[in-house]
Amino acid sequence: MTEKQKISPGDALSRLFEVIREEALANPRFAQRMLSAVGCQVAFVGDDAAKTADPILLAGAGDFSAFYETFSTFSEKDLKAMIGTFALGTAEDVKSIKGKAKKPAYIDLMWAGAQAKLRDRRA
Amino acid sequence: MAVRVAVANHKGGVGKSTTAMMLAEGLAHFHGLRVLVLDFDPQASLSAMLLSSAGVGDASRRGRSLWDLLKVMGTTQPLHLSRYITTRASDLIELRDAIDGRRVDLVASYSELLSDYPGLETSFRRRHPRTRTDVALASEIEPELAALDLSYDVILFDCPAGAVPLSQAAIRLSQVLIAPTVLDDISLRALRDFIAIMLKDDLEVYGRLADFRVAITMHVRSNPEQRQLLDQIRAGTYKLKAMRRPVGHSVSVHRAVSRSRSDAFRSAREKYADALTDVEALADELFEIITQVTGGLRQ
Q: Could you please report the per-residue DSSP string of B85-136?
């Protein structure tokens, strides 16, 4: 067992914040929740965007063109994953989308699924 | 003046009684308030949590139950709500031993009411043939609550599930409504209907409530679906104001709701264990609401 170290409050806080920072960088969802709690809006890009985006939340704003613009930057693979994670459509729904350009159809499916959930949940 | 709070949701099994207990004890223990709880639910869950099952039977034998109160309401006899109050109903040692007036008192329900209630309601409707039962109930109880305004800081109703007159009357009488809910699609759909159909269309109380909050119960923090829903609620997606702290689905809460004997007492730490911070957080938020409603309470 190591001897207890005496550290200053400043050092203790630095270590604490370093752990939080590392966790936030590794877990963008955690970063988003922390920053939302203090009222910060953060734009995630690349892979982090796919991990943190919530299509139901975005659909709640009611703006399909903004919704489309956001998700058109995602890969088909990420869109399919999102459909599953947020239960916006079934595996059959996804399979029924055929042809080369599937992205717009995936986004339409996400929009319709999100709107259905909003209708069910909103008072 | 005592602030009246209804803990209500027409969906059953969402944790109304548990939430009511946590709020009542939290307000008394952490904020020194005098709380009167009216258990309007014939299931008598909250009464059993506070008094134990044997204690509920004792209250009934002494004529101090909701059943006794409703029987009198079906007649022309004067009501005197204070006769049906069991004082110092909580099993918290800190409240049992308090000398500054902080306490949780209770008008206990009684499970025999489950079979007797339809008959009571029929005789009540005979006395008030042209008035909705919930309106008539509320109008009979209102002066009794007003008479207790100086004796209590908070009057808290534990409402039964369903669109039943006891629940509707309690909501009519209240300024603040806390609606416990579980985070799943079925429960959120039921909550949506509760607000739209019962609070807005039927009772027309939604617009005049001083505050309405959703209390999230039985929260499983590791469940990704629940995390999603919580994030969405906090972002305002469903236009619901939720209490800041969801109550976890924990062994501690399960143990807290069991009072083994009417003479068994526990400290707040022993009773709630790691859920005590949830109790404190809920009580703090309700205390903020109450303070805003009243502009400050007695010192």
A: PBSS---BHHHHT-SSS-EEEEEB--TTHHHHHHHHHHHHHHHSTTS-HHHH
Q: Which range, of A53-57, A77-81, B77-81, B220-224, averages the lowest pLDDT?
A: B77-81
At A1 the pLDDT is 47
Question: Looking at the complex, does the CB of residue B237 fall below 8 Å from at least one CB of chain A?
Answer: yes
Q: At what angle do helices A103-121 and A76-85 cross, to 10 degrees?
A: 20
At residue B179, φ and ψ (nearest 5 deg) are: -110, 100
What are the residues facing B179 on neighbouring strands? B214
- Structural contact between residues B190 and B10, judged by C-beta atoms closer than 8 angstroms: yes
Range B205-233 burial, b when 16+ CB lie within 10 A, else e: bbeeebbbbbbbbbbeeeeeebbbbbbbb
What's the CA gap between B79 and B70, in Å, rounded? 9
Contacts of B289 (CB under 8 A, 6+ apart): B176, B210, B211, B213
Candidates B260, B257, B285, B284; CA nearest to B272 is B257
- Has residue A5 got a pLDDT over 80? no
Tell me: the pLDDT tens digits for A94-117? 999 998 889 999 999 999 999 999
Closest chain A C-alpha to B274 CA, distance in angstroms: 23
Supply B172's token pair.
Answer: 């009519």
Query: How far is residue A109's CA from residue A67's CA, in Å, rounded to a whole number?
Result: 12
Partner-chain contact A121 B185, CB within 8 Å: yes
**What Å distances lie between residue A53 and A33, A62, A66, B19, B239, CA to CA?**
12, 16, 13, 32, 20
Beta strands at B176-182 and B154-158: parallel, antiparallel or unpaired: unpaired
Per-residue pLDDT of B273-282, as tens digits, reads: 999 999 999 9
- Chain A residue with the nearest C-alpha to that of B233: A57
Q: Return d(Cα A52, Cα A38) in angstroms, integer.
A: 17
Q: How many CB atoms lie within 10 A of CB B155?
A: 25
d(CA A86, CA A109): 12
**What is the C-alpha separation between B198 and A75, in angstroms, rounded?**
44
Helix ranges, chain B (H): 16-31, 45-51, 53-61, 66-73, 93-96, 113-127, 133-147, 165-173, 185-193, 224-234, 251-256, 268-272, 276-294
CA B13 to chain centre: 14
Supply A93's token pair: 């729904």
Radius of gyration over alpha carbons of chain B, in Å?
Answer: 18
Q: List the single residue in B196, B224, B228 with the smallest CB-CB distance to A123.
A: B196
